[in-house]
Design brief:
Elements lengths: L1 E11 L2 E11 L2 H16 L6 E8 L1
Antiparallel strand pairs: 1-2, 1-3
C-alpha cells in the first residue's frame, strides 16, 4: 500500500473550504474514493459538493 496526499475543497457555509489529507491506499483511484467517503461522512456532504484538485503519491 502507498501513501497518498489528496487536496481540494468542499462546500461550506462560507463558500468552499480547502482541505488536504493523507491516506494509505492501493492506488490513486482508491485514494480518491476513500477521501470522498470520509469527507462526505464527516461533514454531511454529497460527492458533488467535494472538488478534488490533486492526488499525489508520497
Amino acid at each position: 500500500m502507498s501513501q497518498f496526499t489528496v487536496s481540494g475543497r468542499f462546500k461550506s457555509r462560507d463558500g468552499y473550504a480547502p482541505f488536504e489529507t493523507s491516506i494509505e491506499a492501493e492506488n490513486e483511484n482508491v485514494a480518491r474514493e476513500h477521501t470522498l467517503s470520509q469527507l462526505g461522512s464527516q461533514h454531511g456532504l454529497k460527492r458533488t459538493e467535494i472538488k478534488l484538485d490533486e492526488v499525489s503519491e508520497q
